[in-house]
Amino acid sequence: MARGQQKIQSQQKRAKEAEKKKKGNAVDSKIAAKKALVFQCTVCKTQMPDPKTYKQHFENKHPKSPLPAELAQQA
Predict the structure, then answer these.
(1) How far apart are CA 28 and CA 22, in angstroms?
(2) Mean pLDDT of residues grouped by 10 in the chain (75 residues)?
(3) Residues facing residue 48 across a β-bridge
(4) What is the three-state SS of 28-40?
């Protein structure tokens, strides 16, 4: 009987530790993803990671608006 109780406690302890690790990684990855979003659309304020994606977004979502200076230089 004693071993059964120890086993249950051990499993609970490992589950708590795994949950803490999972939460910590989620926060770190969110922060890293936010840092990767460098470019911001001048019209709708959507953030994008690179100029290619930004240009595609701008051409598709805002075709009537003039191309921003930062995208016109790269074209």
Answers:
(1) 10
(2) 82 89 69 82 89 89 87 73
(3) 39
(4) HHHHHHHHHCCEE
